[in-house]
Design a protein that fits this description.
By secondary structure, the protein is mainly beta. The protein has two domains: 48 residues, Roll (SH3 type barrels); 59 residues, no CATH class. The protein has two helices and ten strands; from the N terminus they run βββββαβββββα. The longest helix is centred in the C-terminal third of the chain and has 10 residues.
Amino acid sequence: MKVNELMVGDWVNVNGLNLKVGAIHADEIGVVDPDYKIYWCSDDEFDRIDPIPLTEEILLKNGFDKDERSRYYHEYILELELWDFDISWTNAGGFKYEDIRLAYVHQLQHLLRLCGIEKEIEL
């Protein structure tokens, strides 16, 4: 993964462990371990930084419901606005929100943040 694809708080997989991004520098990503210590890593031969695939299990665990058409939906009420997220499974694989393809957890996190929704994604 490239540093410019991530934001602080995003979930990534580093060397087989699911960790959150705690800091970002020009060519390094600081990930937070379960003890809240930041470890710096870069995508070289020592550190493998990968996105976490978005799955049905993750959507359901985070409050999305599934209907008979393989659509996953969740309603968020923000002050006076109602955000109705209707995410569908595509024939090519992966998920889609409107015309935005969501293949990874960090992409869903970005979408929610852009809509002003502060949701802590559980894996």
